[in-house]
Every structure is written in C-alpha cells, then in structure tokens.
C-alpha cells in the first residue's frame, strides 16, 4: 500500500482503519476466520468423526473399538426388528409432538398476535418464553411429579373417572410437547402479527365469513411459519433422550439406545446417531418446499 | 330509482376519547361518483369504513339502497372496497384474487373464470391472470384491486385513496380511466381522497370533511367557486382570504371573503405598466366599472410555474393575496423582475365570495 501524503501525520489506529477500509477481503477474513474455524473443525469435524466411526467395529469381549471398515452396523440397524421399531417410534414421537405443538400453538399465537391489546403483546411473548429460562431437568421432573401415581394428573382426572397416563410413551409425548411449544408459538405469532389487517378486511368485504377467511387467507399465509416451527419441534424431539428416561417408563427412543451403547459399542451408537441426522435432513428438504426455511 | 344508494344519518364514531366522526348526514344518489375530500384525520376514511362495515358506528344509522345495514357484517353488505394499498392476497394469482369474491359466493368454477377474465380485460390486464401480485407494478396492482371489487357487481364501490401510491403521471391516467369505468358500469362510486384536484376532476359531487364533520356538499364547481366556509376555501384551491379591516376597505363591507387566485388580474402600477396596452386600458376603465374591485400592493414573491406565474402580493390595506396569471406570449421570461414592484389587483365583485368568519 502506498500511503497517501496526508496520512503521514495520522495515528496508527486511523491508518489501520484506513487500510482495512481499502481492503474488503482482509476485512472479511478478519471477521470470519474464527467462526469458520469453529464451524469447520469442531462442528463439521465431529460430525465427520461420528460418521466415520459408525463404520468401525468393537471387540465383543473388551468393548474396545476396532478400526476395521465394515457396514455391519448399518446392516444391523436396518435388519434387527428392535432397532427398526426404535427408529420408527422415535420418528412417530417427533411427528406427534410437532402436530400437538401446532394444534396448541395456533390459537395461543392468534390470541397473542391479533386479539390481545397491542401494548400487552410484548409481555405475552415474554410469558411464552419464560419456561425456556427454567432448567430443562427441573421442568421434566415437574412433569414426573405431575404424572406420578396419585400425582396431579391422576387427582385432576379422578372426578371424571379417569386416571393419568402414567409413565410411558404418552407421558414422553406430553412432556416433549410442553418443552418445545414456545418454539412453535413464536414463529406463528410473528407470522400472524405481520399478516396485514386489511387482507382480512378485504376477504370479509368480498363476502367471506370468518371460517372462509381463515381457510383461504390466514392459514395459507401462516403455513410456512408453522413449518418453520415444526423444524424446531421435530428435530428437538427426535434428538431428545433425557425426557423419555425420566417420564417414559421403559420406552426406548433413538437417544436412549445411543446413550446405552456409548460404553459398550461406540460404533453402533455412532451408526444410530446418524439416523436422526439423516431423518432431519430429509425433513428439512421436505419443509424447504413449503417455503418454511425462508421464514426462519 | 327511488331509494338513495347510501343514506347516512347522525353518524358518529369515537375511538376511546377521540371523536373521529362527529355527526355526519349524507345522501348519495344511485350511480353517482361521490368524493369525500379532506385532510388526514378528518374522518373521511372512518366514514368509508363504517359504510363497508369494518367499523361499527358509535351512533347513527347507515342505509344502503333503502335497507338499514348499520349492524351488519361486511360480508352481508352489497358493497366492495378498493383499499389504499390494494390488499391483494399475495399467495393467490391475479385471477384467483379477482375470482375470490365469486368463489366465496359459490359461483360455479367455469362461470367465475369467465367473469374474472372479463373483469381483467375491462381494466386492460388480459394475460396477467397467472401472475402473482408481487410480479406487478403499482398501477397494475391497482387495477387488479379494481377488477376484484367490480367483478361481483356490487351496488356500491368504495375506494379508499386508491391512487395515493401511484406517481403523478399514472395517477392522472388512472383518474381518467376510473371515471370512464364508472360511467360504463354505472355503479355508485364513493371515493375517499385528500387530493382536491383528484376530487374536482372526477366527481359528480364532493363532500368536504374537516374534524369529523362535513363542511360542504356540492358539485365540484360549487365547492370551488362558492366555498361555504373558510376551511373549504382554503383546502380546495389556494387559501385566499380577505378579512377585517382590509375587507372593509377593499370590498366595502365587513366579513371574510374568498377570492380564487386565477380570478385576480395583476396590473403594473409603475411607468412600465404603460408598455402593456391591455393593462393600461383596464386601468383606464377601472373607475367606470363599479362591478370590479381593486386593491394596490407590493409583490412579495413571484413563483414561475411554467404554464402560469403565481404572485404573492402584500396589500396596502393589510393582508396578502395570491394571484395566478397564465403565461401568455408576453413576459414569462422576466417575471422574476416583478418582485418588489408596485401592482394593482383587480377582480370582478362576484368572485369575492363571502364565507362565515373562521372560528
């Protein structure tokens, strides 16, 4: 860089700022080197190690990893009925949680975004977010208490002649729905809040009642945000293993099986661990078609 | 047709403590192009929204074609609206937008397609049916909104500042087209605008709104030539009022008078005035014509407008008047030199319109 005559008297900081201003590439590399290193080495790197180790095997006596290439683990995953069941059950739980979240979140978001007074809306959003500030474990143990025998759920349902679901698959779905609900409410809230009021007026003006306006105008315009929320609820549910351990009784999901295999059969755990990654990639590709990813 | 298309009686609307509409009575005839003109916050849009059914009045009564509709929902009224920012459904194609009202009313698919295409052709948008609103220009969107509102053949079409977002050229073109479409379909148009020129060019009648009330209802010429209040005189056209002592001295009677700028002739008082033959002639005949008023003053500002020149004249009797002169073949180049010169203003007495004193 040949410095201009008038830069001679300037402070070094100003000279550096000037140099950076004239060199956009240098500026960009200073900005991105650290985060890119983090992403490439730690994030993608560990994923790569996971994937590679899924093709290794273990010594069945010592449980030590043997670095011999084989696709046995994946073959086992696809042929052993127990593994297939666990995978299907996990995907089913994730879908059920997502569906429940969407059904519960829509009316809540409709209230917070369109019915509540505008000055109260930020407070309501904060209220929706507060559960996220509490510890995950505390919340799940709270559900364990609620769903325990003669717990809150049993007590509340007794007058109706019913009892709570107890620990098991249903309990896991309920607890997961509770945990991830805010991630569904928020995008729907944002979409409903941004929905121009005069589109609703226009629909009514052209003769549509509330139900028709909801089906033909509100729902199609908010659907991408529901899909965006579902990306969170689906992937968070698919990867969870603690909730199901605490309230799921004997229920096994992918996460539990990975966890229990880590000590005994690390390559098998790695192979199982790639399943949710693949499922979520497929799910994201499906959601991309709805336009969900541009409303994240 | 016996019943009026729209009849408003004692219409009031309050939002909390603020009164948006403070008592409006109005009758709009069938097939009329009716404008509601006023500054923002004057209540004109609120009245429109009450006719459409988006707002319910705090007090008063709304009739459409002789039927009371005050408590009815928008979808129960034979009225369609063209919104200020068009309010097209972004997830539908142009054709689906236009056909939406027909679909809602359960018109068979084949028929609504034919009618939607016809409506698009009427606004010169044939071939645009498959596009999305986002792919259209402002003027095209505007016409889609118009087609969507007209395709159901409503008894009344409400237009809420529909030309506000367009640039000047397009706006002028759309003014002509809107008027032509209205004449063709014969539907009652209620047009809300804050642009006095727009209201004057298109309307059969105009209501001038101010602070939630109607100041005057009349034909464009009545509103412009004989403003009923000082507000109307000022809002429609240039505010040009003579009052107090200067009115007494110039008009010869007390009160507030409105004079339209183009009615005022500017005659030069200096020796240079004799260069202009007709100016000299006018001055000579001045005293002989008692139906004319004159006032002397000093030119405070000269604004060259291209087709005309605007003079701001400080009167010797006090106050200031604006005069507008067409730039005919003479003097348009050196009008700037007239700043600071002495002039005599002259107008026909019937052009000084007495208005009630401003409150």
UniProtKB/TrEMBL annotation, chain A:
Keywords assigned by UniProt, alphabetized: Cell membrane, Membrane, Transmembrane, Transmembrane helix, Transport
Topological category with respect to the lipid bilayer: Multi-pass membrane protein
Chief site of localization: membrane
GO CC terms, sorted: plasma membrane
Transmembrane segments: 30-56, 86-111, 123-146, 166-186, 217-238, 266-286
A single GO BP: transmembrane transport
PROSITE patterns: ABC_TM1 (PS50928)
Residue ranges annotated for the ABC transmembrane type-1 domain, each copy included: 87-287
The name this protein goes by in its record: Spermidine/putrescine ABC transporter permease
Organism: Streptomyces populi
InterPro entries, sorted: MetI-like, MetI-like_sf
Family: Belongs to the binding-protein-dependent transport system permease family. CysTW subfamily.
Cell location: Cell membrane
Gene3D superfamilies cross-referenced by the UniProt entry: MetI-like
Taxonomic path: Bacteria, Bacillati, Actinomycetota, Actinomycetes, Kitasatosporales
UniProtKB/TrEMBL annotation, chain B:
Listed EC numbers: 7.6.2.11
Listed GO CC annotations: ATP-binding cassette (ABC) transporter complex
Region (Disordered): 271-292
Cytoplasm in keyword set: no
InterPro entries: AAA+_ATPase, ABC_SmlMolc_Importer, ABC_transporter-like_ATP-bd, ABC_transporter-like_CS, Mo/tungstate-bd_C_term_dom, P-loop_NTPase, PotA-like, Transp-assoc_OB_typ2
Cited SMART domains: AAA
Name of the protein in question: Spermidine/putrescine import ATP-binding protein PotA
């Amino acid at each position: 860089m040949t410095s201009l005559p008038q830069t001679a008297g300037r402070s070094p900081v100003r000279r550096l700022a000037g140099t950076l201003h004239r060199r956009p590439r240098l500026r960009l590399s200073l900005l991105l080197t650290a985060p890119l290193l983090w992403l490439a080495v730690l994030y993608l790197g560990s994923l790569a190690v996971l994937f590679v180790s899924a093709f290794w095997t273990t010594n069945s006596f010592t449980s030590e990893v043997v670095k011999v290439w084989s696709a046995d683990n994946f073959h086992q995953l696809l042929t052993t009925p127990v593994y297939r069941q666990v995978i299907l059950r996990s995907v089913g739980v994730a879908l059920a949680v997502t569906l429940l979240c969407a059904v519960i979140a829509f009316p809540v978001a409709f209230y917070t975004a369109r019915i509540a007074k505008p000055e109260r809306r930020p407070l309501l959003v904060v209220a929706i977010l507060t559960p996220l500030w509490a510890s995950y474990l505390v919340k799940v143990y709270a559900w364990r208490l609620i769903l325990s025998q003669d717990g809150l759920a049993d007590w509340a349902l007794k007058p109706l002649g019913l009892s709570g679901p107890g620990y098991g698959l249903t309990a896991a779905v309920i607890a997961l729905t509770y945990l991830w609900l805010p991630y569904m409410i928020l995008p729907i809230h944002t979409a409903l809040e941004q929905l121009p009021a005069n589109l609703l007026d226009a629909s009514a003006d052209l003769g549509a009642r509330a139900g028709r306006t909801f089906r033909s105008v509100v729902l199609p315009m908010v659907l991408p945000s529901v899909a965006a929320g579902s990306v969170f609820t689906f992937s968070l549910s698919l990867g969870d293993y603690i909730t199901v351990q605490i309230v799921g009784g004997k229920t096994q999901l992918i996460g539990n099986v990975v966890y229990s295999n880590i000590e005994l059969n690390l390559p098998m755990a790695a192979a199982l661990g790639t399943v949710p990654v693949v499922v979520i990639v497929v799910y994201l590709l499906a959601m991309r078609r709805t336009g969900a990813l541009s409303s994240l | 047709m016996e019943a009026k298309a729209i009849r408003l009686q004692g219409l009031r609307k309050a939002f909390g403590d603020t009164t948006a509409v403070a008592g409006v009575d109005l009758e709009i005839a069938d097939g009329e192009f009716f404008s509601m003109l006023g500054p923002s916050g004057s209540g004109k849009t609120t009245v429109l929204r009450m006719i459409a059914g988006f707002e319910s009045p705090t007090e008063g009564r709304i009739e459409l074609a002789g039927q009371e509709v005050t408590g009815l929902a928008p979808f129960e009224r034979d009225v369609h609206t063209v919104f200020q920012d068009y309010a097209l459904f972004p997830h539908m194609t142009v054709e689906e937008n236009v056909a939406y009202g027909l679909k809602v009313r359960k018109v068979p698919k084949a028929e609504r397609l034919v009618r939607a295409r016809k409506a698009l052709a009427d606004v010169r948008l044939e071939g645009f049916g498959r596009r999305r609103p986002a792919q259209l220009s402002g003027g095209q969107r505007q016409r889609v909104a118009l087609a969507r509102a007209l395709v159901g053949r409503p008894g009344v079409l409400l237009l809420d500042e529909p030309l506000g977002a367009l640039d000047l050229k397009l706006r002028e073109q759309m003014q002509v087209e809107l008027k032509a479409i209205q004449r063709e379909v014969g539907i009652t148009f209620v047009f809300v605008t804050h642009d006095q020129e727009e209201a004057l060019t298109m309307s059969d009648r105009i209501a001038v709104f101010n602070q939630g009330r109607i100041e005057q209802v009349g034909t464009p010429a009545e509103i412009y030539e004989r403003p009923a209040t000082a507000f109307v005189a000022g809002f429609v056209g240039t505010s040009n009022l003579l009052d107090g002592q200067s009115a007494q001295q110039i008009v010869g009677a007390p009160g507030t008078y409105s004079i339209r700028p183009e009615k005022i002739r500017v005659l030069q008082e200096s020796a240079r005035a004799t260069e202009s033959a007709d100016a000299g002639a006018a001055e000579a005949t001045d005293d002989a014509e008692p139906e004319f008023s004159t006032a002397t003053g000093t030119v405070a500002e000269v604004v060259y407008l291209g087709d005309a020149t605007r003079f701001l004249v400080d009167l010797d009797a006090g106050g200031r008047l604006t005069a507008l002169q067409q730039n005919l073949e003479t003097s348009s180049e050196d009008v700037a030199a007239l700043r600071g010169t002495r002039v005599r203003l002259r107008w026909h007495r019937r052009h000084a319109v007495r208005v009630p004193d401003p409150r």
